Amino acid sequence: MSTIGQKIKQVFPDIAILKDQDNYSVFDGRNLPSFVKDFLIRKHIDSEGNLDRDAILDFLDKHIPDDNNVVKNRLYRQEQVQLLTRFIITTDIKGGKVRFAVPDAGIKFNEAIIPDYVVSQHRDDLIDGERWGVIKLIYIPPAGKEKGYIELADYKPFRPYKVNLQYFRDCRKQFTTEEWMDVLLSAMEYNPDSFNGITQKLEFLTRLLIFVEPRLNMIELAPKGTGKSYVFGNLSKYGWLISGGKVSRAKLFYDKSRQQPGIMKNYDFVTFDEIQTIIFQDPPEMQAILKSYLEAGNATVDNYKFLSECSTMLMGNIELTSANMPRHSKYFVQLPETFRESALLDRFHGFIEGWYLPRMNKSMILKDWTLNVEYFSEVLHLLRTAPEYSMLVNEVVHSEEKSDLRDLKAVQRIATAYFKLLCPHITSVEELNKDEFKLYCLNPAIRRRGIIKEQCHKIDEEFKEYMPEIRIK
Q1: Does residue 322 sit in the same domain as residue 400?
Q2: What pLDDT is recorded for position 353?
Q3: End-to-end CA, the chain
Q4: In Å, how far are 17, 47, 189, 282, 307 from 14, measured between CA atoms?
Q5: Is residue 8 assigned to a domain?
Q6: CATH number for 242
Q7: Residues 226 and 290 in one domain
Q8: How far apart are CA 200 and CA 205, in angstroms?
Q9: Alpha-carbon distance 326 to 318, whole Å?
Q10: Residue 436 confidence class, pLDDT cut points 50, 70, 90
Q11: In a 3-state reduction of DSSP, which class is residue 399?
Q12: Count of H-run helices and E-run strands, the chain
């Protein structure tokens, strides 16, 4: 156990979990995100890190079967089935029904219905989109001309932790900022000692900014094997990862035929992974809607005004030289044509230089005590709506009078996100360590916005290449 692992266990006695790969082998054959695995480990482990493997295997067999056919067969035999699973909800306007699908159990939309009494009981939770929870399923046999169907008879949201932000803030006070970076990296399930210094650690932690800051728009280009997909697909149920394939306005923003908002309405962030392989249907329409949304958080589709606080991340690969630096000075040359326009790119707040990140290797796998992922993801979710951080940053950050307002807002937003991550315990200007704020929050924010500026200038010389002076008051 490392020094930081011991301290995490001491400071967070009820939240810490031992990341032991032997324990996690109990999930072999089941494709579960980390926040679910940690919940189940915590449920069946003692204070010394000893796992009751038989109990957890029994729970998995009953509630998370590894065979799609098992669930349907049990339902057909008139058994009630209770699952801890992800499921997707859609409202069938024409049919007057709320339908759901459980992809991991082979249950399709046309086979399953959520009755009105369940929808009414969980009105705020059972809205269109992907959900995680404990669901009770029953099978309603055919009756007369009615076909048989699966019914969602009960639902419990997957929220095993009631997070007290003040408790989290008080715990943060017991760590230095550099120690806290290691806490965050370990909470992401990586070994802090495998990173090469503060700069590399901060570059990696920058991936978490969209988890904590509303409507923050980032781009990361990195070589293959730097763990891009894992971070955004496993650490939070509040994010949606799109990996290649076709993407439409209806899927993201608003479906006119169903009169329903898209996935960006109900998630903290959406990540476009492998952006070079994504095909945007009707690119001119998507480009226009993205410009509006990235700028102001809204877009108009016909007579519907789409509003959301969802953050966005574009992720793609980039060719590097033997010196591990970008082969082309124009970083965005390999992006889809939709994203090669300077006016659209300028609406992204910052850039992550993924070539500075380490390739994933065995030494990076955490084997230590850390915060469990489900608790950590809930904290990040709550920090999004804590207003005191942006108020503090806006109060202390100053720019020259003629500076571009888009640059200032981008820097303020990125700096606020860093501040939420690194210094959640500081909520007033009087407590602020200005040197640390400048080093870990403001300067990185200016640099990340500056890269966007440079790249926009390379595409269109009408864009200024250099950042205005932005400093602490």
Answers
A1: no
A2: 94
A3: 43
A4: 9, 9, 18, 50, 38
A5: no
A6: 3.40.50.300
A7: yes
A8: 9
A9: 7
A10: very high
A11: strand
A12: 19, 18
- The 3 state secondary structure assigned to 4-51 is HHHHHHHHCCCCEEECCHHHHHHHCCCCCCHHHHHHHHHHCECCCCCE
Which three-class secondary structure state does DSSP give residue 351?
strand
- Residue where one domain finishes, among candidates 267, 297, 332: 332
- Confidence tier at 67 by pLDDT (50, 70, 90): low
| Two structure tokens written together for 96 | 């007057």
| CA neighbor of 141 nearest in space, from 150, 154, 128, 131 | 150
Looking at the structure of the chain, the number of domains it has is 3
DSSP state of 468: P
145 and 240 share a domain?
A: no
Q: Please state the separation of Cα 198 from the chain's center in Å.
A: 23
Domain end among 332, 350, 372:
332
DSSP string, 242-257: EEEEEE-HHHHTEETT
Cα 139 to Cα 3, 77, 103, 107, 119, distances in angstroms: 53, 9, 17, 12, 18
Q: 227 with 271: CB under 8 angstroms? A: no
pLDDT above 90 coverage of the chain, percent: 48
Banded pLDDT at 68 (limits 50, 70, 90): low
Say if 225 falls within a structural domain. Answer: yes
Residue 22 within a domain: no
Same domain? 221 vs 322? yes
Amino acid (1-letter code) at residue 299: A
| Rounded distance between C-alpha atoms, residue 39 and residue 160, angstroms | 8
CB count in 10 Å sphere of residue 201: 19
How many Å is the Cα radius of gyration of the chain?
23
Do residue 306 and residue 404 come from a single domain?
A: no
**Do 302 and 228 lie in a common domain?**
yes
Half-sphere exposure of 91 (CA within 13 A, CB side): 15
Contact 298, 305 (CB under 8 A): yes
Instruction: Specify whether 392 is located in the same domain as 303.
Output: no
Among all chains, which residue has been given the structure tokens 């571009």?
A: 404
The range of the structural domain enclosing residue 283 comes to 217-332
Name residue, tokens 């899927």. 251
Which residue, 29, 5, 4, is CA-closest to 18? Answer: 5
d(CA 92, CA 105): 21
- What pLDDT is recorded for position 201? 96
User: What are the C-alpha distances in Å from 278 to residues 53, 241, 459?
Assistant: 41, 12, 22
Residue 66 has pLDDT above 90, yes or no: no
223 and 327 share one domain = yes
Within 13 A of 469's CA, how many CA atoms are on the CB side? 5
Mean pLDDT of 390-409: 90
Pick from 332, 40, 8: which is nearest to 168 by CA?
8
Residue 359 in domain: no
**pLDDT exceeds cutoff 80 at 392:** yes
